[in-house]
Amino acid sequence: MGILSWLIPQEKHFFDMIEQQSNNVLAGVDALVVMLEDYNDIDTKRKKIKQIENEGDKMVHDIFAELNKTFITLIDREDISKLTSALDDILDNL
Q: What's the confidence (pLDDT) of residue 10?
């Protein structure tokens, strides 16, 4: 492990966390489309969307907690924060 590996940030898990968040957003959008295409059992479908949104809120919390613990990131901190917030806004607006 040379000096270069010490200087280059090794915090690559943010990519995985953001990918999980985007997959959750996709699941929320898919659930909304299913609800709009078939009006049967709306309450159950609404609860599923709410559950997905709650999972998204937990993911946002986890990402920000990890961001606050990490000194150097591969992507700019502001970019991670903005992307995370934008993905959360999509779910919030569903």
A: 56
